[in-house]
Amino acid sequence: MAQLTQRAATFQRTLSAAAFSVSSTRCLNTASTSPITVETSLPFTGHKIDPPSRSVETTPQELLSFFRDMALMRRMEIAADSLYKAKLIRGFCHLYDGQEAVAVGMEAAITKKDCIITAYRDHCIFLGRGGTLLEAFAELMGRKDGCSKGKGGSMHFYKKEGGFYGGHGIVGAQVPLGCGLAFAQKYSKDENVTFAMYGDGAANQGQLFEALNMAALWDLPAILVCENNHYGMGTAEWRAAKSPAYYKRGDYVPGLKVDGMDALAVKQACKFAKEYALKNGPIILEMDTYRYHGHSMSDPGSTYRTRDEISGIRQERDPIERIRKLILSHDLATEKELKDTEKEVRKEVDEAIAQAKESPLPDPSELFTNVYVKGLGVEAFGADRKELRAVLP
Amino acid sequence: MFGFIRQRAACRGNHASSLERGIRATALRTFSSSGKEMTVRDALNSALDEEMSADPKVFLMGEEVGEYQGAYKISRGLLKKYGPERVRDTPITEAGFTGIGVGAAYYGLKPVIEFMTFNFSMQAIDHIINSAAKSNYMSAGQISVPIVFRGPNGAAAGVGAQHSQCFAAWYGSCPGLKVLVPYSSEDARGLLKAAIRDPDPVVFLENELLYGESFPVSAEALDSSFCLPIGKAKIEREGNDVTITAFSKMVGYALKAAEILAKEGISAEVINLRSIRPLDTSTINASVRKTNRLVTVEEGVPQHGVGAEICATVVEESFYYLDAPIERIAGADVPMPYAANLERIAVPQVDDIVRAAKRICYRSH
Q: Does CATH number 3.30.499.10 belong to domain B234-361?
């Protein structure tokens, strides 16, 4: 942080700060879409494939939107932590702070016609796919304005019209499901791809290899994305996997290892993977990333990791700080403007939470809705069948 | 063989219920007799063929369904007609291909997933329950799963403990699933077509020993728009003295038992459940209110079984109509043995049903 202020102090602003209003639509001048080339933090490592170049094309607009989007995601997750401790969120809550670059980098490379499916650490992916803060917070608090009307909870966010298929609680199940989405895309001749995301813990699941085998046999446009945050709950990767080189685990399926804390590297890898998968079938992307929180809100995350490790990553590799440095070094905004963006984002989150708190709990009749699409007029019962019964619509 | 009219016929509940009322009104011979007979195998094959022809989103996936023409030849001829994109042979990886099928259904396709037997569905049961059955609910209607899981269920002949389990009770206890159990060829045709058209996940439990059995089929049942309502039982034989509920192969046994009972002056009403979930409790209760006695028959074990559920619902809804306690005829509480004599006494036989019915009519000696 000291380094940052020092660097910022060396820049002279030629235009007064008043000339710009700090918002995500800030850079409306023609320069905002003019390309900038940035090198990724590390080169990509390929398995049975030539990796893409580490020179990434971006624009000021993109970098600023990366900053804003990641700041929003970070703020949302921190706020969720507080809501959980205030007992407004119940059950499971798996937070994504630290991993934001994967969500935003992926979105920058794809369209809403491409599909994403992930496991239970899904709040930020949901946001990236077009979900709103209100839908997220209301769902977390089990209110009717939640994206699943309060009936899903933290692990079951969906946004079908944004190409987001959840939100799954069973470790590894989302990978065959994702290959199924890719199957359907190919069957329908859609020229789109599916990103099936999973963690280092899920990477050892048998069903993943079953699905990958079929995806490779049938050339499905499936991109398997391992978000390797190095811990499957409390078990470090070296204790769970004989081979933690997850990008190589596809064997006959090529893979790429990516710095998952570098949004531009993620974008480049996803763009590369999409082109590859549309022509050749499945590919694995291993995103080297990190979660600051424990596995979930019931895990402090410090019994199996040292505090030094966590703070070290925060200092050296934080995805938001990386983009901040990039923006400042390319003179795309001032430090104050970025801080104002963060304040704005915080306000947005606070407002969404206030609104979500106003949202009521679902009506008791919702207990019996959506069991079926076509209920056939069948009766369903509550705990006391003489007391609570309904006809399934 | 049949006139495959390319129809996107909507199988709405209203339409089906008038049909079904027709069936129940005269119990058996509602439809004009076509003089035709058809095996259950051909019934399933024709249903798959017609639904694949009518809707390009329908595809079949499973082990040996394509080039082998189906492990039990249910999908004979379909690969040739529809090609390998729509009739997919899979590796022996149930968890993988069931997950792929459910994912394809999320996207909007209409998969028919074949399990070579439902014993192997246990390898994929997480996808059937957690990925398919619960999705529409958890997503509050965003993610519907129009998928059919089908294959032979229950005991065959001499296939031993790991290949003989009946899964009706297991799947029947899952909210979000529809579970169908066809008996005759008309059942097979009408229920499979209804299942494929249904927007919810359907577990379709066939029976290997019925595949080769021939049944008369009406002209109506041969039409490509033919559909049976899901959740409605059929009264296969009307009677007044005792109700016998059964499903799948046991319907045949119950009908044989009814013949024997008739000779002894006991008139048995045989109900073919057709659907385990939803269970047609109103047909069952209406019948028991008429006959005052009930024998439930199933191949699976009695504990937590289909018969247990039927007993509970009848006790709840029609207690004061019962003249005798309910009898359950079910499979033995053991894994299926191989030796022929042991296997015979591990599953219900016609004699068992007759004996229970006589007992319940206070006619046993």
A: no
